[in-house]
Design a protein that fits this description.
elongated, 4 helices, 2 strands, 5% strand, single chain, 139 residues
């Protein structure tokens, strides 16, 4: 199965992507408003520089930088949380599909040969442990 296509076309991914875009848009609007206020003060300071304007400019510039950093960190955490949520749900659906459709294996086509599901009766872990240890011990 093409995992990238599955991921890209999964409805939950699209919904969470929209939520992330809304968050990004909201934070961008707030930063743009703050940036506009900073530019207005800067413009005023080009005409007449008052101590009050300098203090206000410095304060707003600091707030802008802190908010920008905070929004980026939160957006990154939210994106990771959404990605984890999507894959957790997809993995469960893949397993459910495999069981419901009597599949022995479901292999992901992402280039690394990931086995997305394997019937437990097909698990050769114990045999592989025995074989590997025998080979290691020269038997």
């Amino acid at each position: 199965m093409d995992l990238q296509k599955l991921y890209a076309e999964f409805e939950l991914k699209k919904e969470l992507e929209t939520s992330l875009a809304n968050y990004t848009h909201k934070s961008t609007l707030e930063l743009d408003s703050l940036g506009l206020a900073i530019n207005q003060i800067k413009y005023r300071m080009d005409e007449v520089k008052t101590e009050r304007d300098v203090m206000l400019y410095d304060q707003l510039a600091n707030v802008y930088l802190l908010k920008e950093e905070s929004y980026e960190k939160e957006r990154s955490q939210l994106a990771q949380q959404f990605d984890d949520q999507i894959w957790k749900q997809l993995n469960q659906y893949i397993k459910d599909y495999a069981v419901d459709n009597d599949c022995d294996f479901v292999i992901g086509g992402n280039g690394d040969g990931s086995v997305m599901y394997a019937r437990s009766s097909k698990d050769i872990t114990e045999e592989m442990i025995k074989y590997a240890n025998q080979q290691y011990n020269g038997k």
